[in-house]
Amino acid sequence: MTTEMQEIAITEEKPLLPGQPDPEKDFEAAGRILLDQAQKHSIETPHGVLHVTLYGTSNTRRPAILTIHDVGMNSKSCFSPLFEFDEMQEIVKNFTRVHVDAPGQEEGAAAFPMGYQYPSMEQIAEMIPAVLTYFNFRSVIGIGVGAGAYILSRFTMANQDSVEGLVLINIDPEARGWMDWAAQKIISLTSSLTEQILNHLFSQEEMSANGDLVKSHRERISKTPNFINIELFWKSYYSRSELVIDRNNSFKCPVMLVVGDQSPYEEAAVECNSKLNPTTTSFLKMADAGGQPQLNQPSKLTEAFKYFIQGMGYMASSVMTRLSRSRTASLSSTYSMDGGRERSRTLSQSSQGGMIPERSRTLSQSSQGGMIPERSRALSQSSQGGQVPSSPSHTMEVSC
């Protein structure tokens, strides 16, 4: 009997010695640096160049978060306080994000020459697909404020498959009528363009108080060396056409509308909410948020945004900062991850902690603490601790 001997190569795995590099940790560290590092890009589009800032990598399976700012702002002044907020970091580390500056609005932009034909709102919306192509993004989650919300809405209507979700802050889909045009002419005789833009951005209460936020934006706008660029963007937005919304066809993706309870665009947002499909729309009316919820209430907006993306099937294990796991699971269970999403909710806040019932599947917020989801026909809590029955429609009440 012959016994065959076989040589077996055994690789000895030795623990890393102190000071020896760990490839896995180095890779993770490089990834964190990439997420934190701003990468500037200039992208050619059919209507001119767009300047964008990328955080993360374009090689991502998840949708990227794409933002567009309002008039009188740029991507930094409009979104930095929100995305630098501590509680937002859990989202930031899980998603690539790209901040789009409207033409000529980026920091350090050269002033446009006299007679320059600034693109219309429709044309700026037509520039966005070039951004997705440039980075090879399959889809995005859009966040827009004011003019940016309008632009993203137009982009989504023309590119339904490219958008998985929309967060529209201070949306106004209406065109300016003759009465608005006449009023604007009178205002332009008595107010500087800087003050007109500030009145667009902030509530009357904020303007009267003239707080630090208003002062800082007044100084930034009035002293910018490319003021003509801001003026052209403002005129383009003010000359926008009506955003014709069809309840069943305009947006196939879930939409969250956000507005401050004293915002100049509160009525416009409520009107827009009434035109959208209630089964895919959430409405968040925030107390103490003024005209810019992403600047004044980043914590509450972050928490609402986490709910929103959880409903899309992402970050299911994320724990809300002021939520118990059981409550989070209760809310998450109302979202369908197979495409049949049920999301018709209105998020509304009272600054006293009370619940303000809105239309079907209302999500209501107070400024007191975490979000507590309740099922349909939930009892709303009054500020005195009493219980008031909610409206007979299918509602979901949430306080935070």
Automatic annotation (TrEMBL):
It comes from the Eukaryota. Coiled coil: none annotated. Residues 380-393 have a biased composition (Low complexity). SUPFAM superfamilies: alpha/beta-Hydrolases (SSF53474). Pfam families: Ndr. Residues 1-23, 331-400 are annotated as: Disordered. Belongs to the NDRG family. PANTHER family: N-MYC DOWNSTREAM REGULATED. This is Protein NDRG2. It comes from Umbra pygmaea. The lineage of its organism: Eukaryota, Metazoa, Chordata, Craniata, Vertebrata.
